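fold-stage: in
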Amino acid sequence: MENESLLELLERLRSRSHEGIAVEFKSNLNDPAEIGQYISALANSAALEGESRAWVVWGVVDVTHEVIGTSFDPFAAKVEGNQSLIMWLQRMTTPKADFSFHQAEHSVGSVVMLEIHPARTAPVAFQNIRYIRIDSHKTKLGEHSDKEARLWEVLGQKADWSGELVAGASLDDLAPEAIEMARKRFIEYLVKSERDAERHEQIRHEAAGWDVPTLLNKAKLTKQGRVTRSALLLLGKDESAHFLAPADTKISWVLRDANNTTKSSQHFSLPLLLSTDKVFSYIRNVTIEHMPDGTLFPTAIQQYDPWVIREALHNCIAHQDYQLGGKINLVEHPDRLVFSNLGQFIPPSVEWMLEHQSPPEHYRNQWLIDGMIRLRMIDQVGSGIRRMFQTQRDRFFPLPDYRIDENELGKPRVEVTLPGQILDPKYTLVLMKRDDLDLRQVLLLDSVQKRRVISQEAVKELKGLKLIEGRSPNFFVSSKVAEWTNQKAHYILTRGLDDKYYQQLVLQYLGEYKRALRRDLDGFLTTKLPDVLDAAQKQHKIKNLLQAMRRQGLIHPEGPRSSAVWKLGAEPVLDKAN
C-alpha cells in the first residue's frame, strides 16, 4: 500500500469513537508473544463479527487516538536465535494466520499497521492457544464457550457433510460383504460396551437377527433407513462413488525406495471399511532386531505396530475434508510410513491432544466418526492420537511426527510420519530406564534426538532431569545415560573435548610432518571432532581453532591464502603428557 493510502486508512481508524472489536492501538508494543496473541484474538474476532480486516496500529495512543509515532520496526525485529519476527509469528500460528505489516510515514513519526485477515477454516491459535476479543480486552477463547460455538458455526463447521442424506441412493448401493463386516464389528462393539458378561450371548443373538435397515440405523450409518454419505463411504459399492462427487473416495498406497523413487502403487476405493485391510496387506511390515533391555542381545520385533498403522489410516478417513476433492495417501519408505489427508487440523495442536484427556468440542465429520467408533475402526473420540504416541513409546521407537500445512494448491493438509527404525540408541535407552517420564517429556526428548529446536523452558526441564547436555542448538543425551549402559567412552566422543586437546593434536601433527595444507588439517581433525556436529559445524570449529592458535603464535601459514602451508610457530609448546 502506498503511503498516502495508509495515512487515509489511519485517519479512518483513528476516527472511531473507540478501538472496537477489530482495532487495537499501541505505542511501542514489542513483545513477540503478545503480538502473536493479538493476531489470534483479532483474526477470530474479525471472523465472528463479519469484519473484512482487523488492525493493530503502533504509534497511536489508545485513549486519545493521538499520533505519537513509534520506534517499533517489525521488518528488522528478531526473536529466538536471530529468527525474523514475521517468520516466527507465521510459524507460531495454527492454522497459519494471514497477516502483513505496513509502515506509514506520518508528519509526527513512523506508524506501523498490522493488517490481519479473519480466520477462515478454523479459529487461529497462537502457540496452541486460541484467543478472542471481549470488548477491548483479549482473552482465551476456551473461556467463552458461547463465542467459541458461534465462531465454529460462522466458519462453517456446524453442517456435518458426512451426516447428510444422499439423494437417489438406497441400500442397494451398499456392498453386501461390507454390510456383513459391519454387523460383525458392531456386535463386537456392543459386547465390549456391555459390562454384564451374561448379556453378551443375548446381544450376539439379537444383533444376528436384525435386518439390514435396523442394523445400519443402530450403528448410526443410516437415518431411518435412508443412506447417508458416511454409509456410502464405509459400505458403498465401488460403482456408487459417483453419489459422493466431487469427493475423491480413494486411498492410494505408494511404495518408494531409499532414493524416493516410486517402485509400486495401488489405489483402493469404496467400501472403505474393507479397503483399509487391503491397504494394510500391502505394507511391508518387516521384522527387525531390537534391544529391549539395553543389552547386546537383540529381540525380533515388527517394524510397525499394526494397531498404530490402522489407527493412523482410519484417522485419515475420519478427518478428511471430502469437500476439498483430495484422496488419502499412504507412502511407504524403507524406514517410515507417511499418511496424509486434506483438511484443517481442528484441535489446537497435537501437543494439546496429548495433554488433554477430553476431545475437542468440534469435529468435521461427527456422523462419520460416530459410525466408525461403532464399527471399531477408531477408538473413542480423542484417545487415538495419545495411544499412538504411547504405543511408540512403549516400543522404544521415535514418536509419530505431525506436519500441518498446505498442499501445492493451498489446501489445508495433515501429514503423519510413523518412524520404523531407531534413530538414536541413547534415546531408546532413556525410555528403557526412565519409565517415570510423562508423555510430554518424552515428546520433548524425541525432538532432541531428531535435532529439532526446543524452547528454553524445555531445555531447562530436560537438563534438570539430567537427560540432555550441550549448547543450543546441539543438544544430546547426557552422560547419565552413558553411565546406565557403560558407554562412557562413546559419551566422551559425542560430547567432545576442549580446545586444548585439539590444539595438542595439531601441534603433534605438525611436529611429525613439519608442514600441512589446510585440507590436510581439515581431514585430520574432522575425524576427531564429536559426531553431534554436522559437516558445516565441524568446518567452522576447525577454522576458529586454527585462527586461535595463529593468534597465540603456536602455528602460522606461509604463502598465498588459497594454498598456504601451515607450520609450527617459533616456539611451540608441546604437552609432554601427550
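fold-stage: in (second)
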Amino acid sequence: MRIAVAQINTRAGDFGATSQRMIELARRAASEGADLLAFPMAAFAGPCLPDYGSLAGYAMDMGAALEEIAGAAACPCVIPVAMSGEDGPACETMLIRDGNVVPVGLMSWFLDGIPTEPSDSSARGTFEFAGVKFGVAYNYDDIRAFVDAEAEIDALLYFPERGFALDDPSSALGASLMEGRFRDDAWSLDAWIVGVGSLGGYDLQVYSGSSFVLTPKAELVGCAPAFEEALLVVDMSLDDVGAPVEVLEPELYDRSLHLWEALSLGLRDQLTKEGDSDVALVLDGRLDSSVLVTLASDALGPLHVHALIDATQDARHQQLAAQLARTLGIDVRPPALPLPDSDDVQLTRDMVQVQLAALARGVGAVPLASFDKTFVALEARIARGGAASLAPLGDVYRTDVIELAHLRNTISPVIDAASIASYDVPEIAGLTAAESSPETRLQRVDVTLATYLEWERSLSDAVSRQGCEDVCVGILDRLCACELARMVLPPCFAVSSRTVREMRVPLGLAWHDVVRPDDDRSLHRDLLAELPSALEARGRVRKAEMSVQASAIQPESIEGQVNELLGLLRDLLQDGGLASGDVGDFPFGPLTWGSPFSEN
C-alpha cells in the first residue's frame, strides 16, 4: 500500500481552518496515489484540552469538524485527537473512511463490548485497513506494550504526544534515527514504523516534525524535513513483490542545532498564534541575555526585537550589550524611567523590570525573561517576580545555553567570547572545593539537577554515582527552598523530558531526603522488583471477575451501560457519522562525563 504523512503546523482547535487544510491535503495525497493519509497528534485539536466547563461544546465542534472531513476527504485518513480521560487528556485515533468516523482505540473497545482487560494496549490500539494490520502508539510505553505482547502487526503508527526534549534524542524522530530507539523497535516488532511528527508550538510544547518511515529491517525509506511542513508519500510493501524501495541514509543529529531551531519555532509560533509579533527584553552583555536576544532576532527578525541596555551592569558589559545590538540590528530604546539613586541592589533590579514593562507597553511587545533552567531550579529567589510574560530559555540548563552560544557563533560570530564567559555559578557549599574551575562547577551543578529532575533518581543515587555528598545535599536543599519563588516566574517552553515545575515540592513540607546506606537502598529495589508480579496477579484476578460479570449481563444491559459510558462520544459525533468497523538512554550532551547513570 501507499501511505502518506501530512506534517503540518496548525493552531490547536481551529477546527474550521484545519478541516479545510486536511481536506485539501487528502486531495493531494489521493492524487499521488496514497491509500491512507496520517495526520500528526497535535494538528487537529492540539495535545491539551480546554477546562471542564467547556468540554461539551469543544467535543461537539470537534465532532462536527470530523464529520465535515469524513464527507469530503478524497483519501482515507487517520486523525489522532486528545480526549478527556480519568487522569487527564487521553489520546484516541479516528479512522476516516467511506464517509464514516471510526474510533480505533479505547472508544472502539467500549463500542465493541470486548470482555478483555482494558489495559491490553495491543488489543485495543489496532485496526485493519487494505489488508494491513496497524498498531497505534502515542508514547514509549505503548510501543513497549506491543513489543512485550509480541503483537502481530504489519505496521506501527507512532503519534508522539509530547514534543521535543533535549535529553531524549528519540523525540527528534527522523532527525535522530542513528541515536534514537526506533530502528531497534522496528527489528523487535518485525513491522514497519511510521513516525508521524507534529510540527510547531502547541501550548508550551514544541514539536519539530521530521516524520519518518522505517521498514521492518530498520531501513529508512522516507523522511520529512525538521521544522518544515511537508507531505511525505511512501510505498509500504508487505512482501518482496514489486519495485525495490530506495533506502535513505539517516542524517547526523546535532542536538544543539535542533534545540536552537526548536526554541526559534516555539517563540515564533507562540507569538503568532496569540496575535503578537514583537518582543522586548533587557540586554545586559552577559550569557543568557545575549543568547536570548540572538534567538529572538533569528526567530522574529531584528525589527521585531526591542531592547534596553541594563544600566546596572558595569561599563564593559554595557558596551558588550550595545555591540551585540548593533551587530544584530535590533531596536534599542532608552529607559522611560530613571534608576533610583540607591545602593540597594535588589531595588535597582526591580526598577529595571519596571523599565522593561514600560518598554513593552510602549511598543506593544511581549516582555521576555532571559533566565535559564539552572536559575529556575536554584536561583529563583533572586527574581521574586518580574515584568516578563515568557522565558524561552527557562527549560535549558546553563551548560546547554553555553553550547547554544557556541553553536550560533559557528553560523555567524555575533556573540562576544567575553559575553559567553560571563555567567554565574550557583553558590553551593563545598562546590568550590569539589571543582577547580567555573566550567566544571557549573557542569556538576547541572548534572546533579538532571539526575534528580530528568532521570528522577534519589539523593542517594546521585551521591553514589557522583560523590561530593555535601554538594548534592546542598543542591537538593536549594532546589526545594526555591519552590515558592518559582511560582511567580513566567512560563517557559518545555524542551526537556521534565521541567522544574513538573517537580512539585509541597509548600511547608518538613521532610527532606537523606543519603541512605546501600542495604536500605537494596531493600527498596527488591520491593520495587516485586511490584510488577503483584500487579500482574491482581490483573489476572480482575480479568476473571470481568469475565464472570460479562457472562451474567444480558445484551440489553450491556447496551445501556455502553450508552451511558459514551455520552461524551455521542456529543462528539452527533447526527450520526460513527460507524462500526475494523478497527531509552538520555545522554545529557555537552557535560564531560555524559549521563549520570550507565545504560543499566
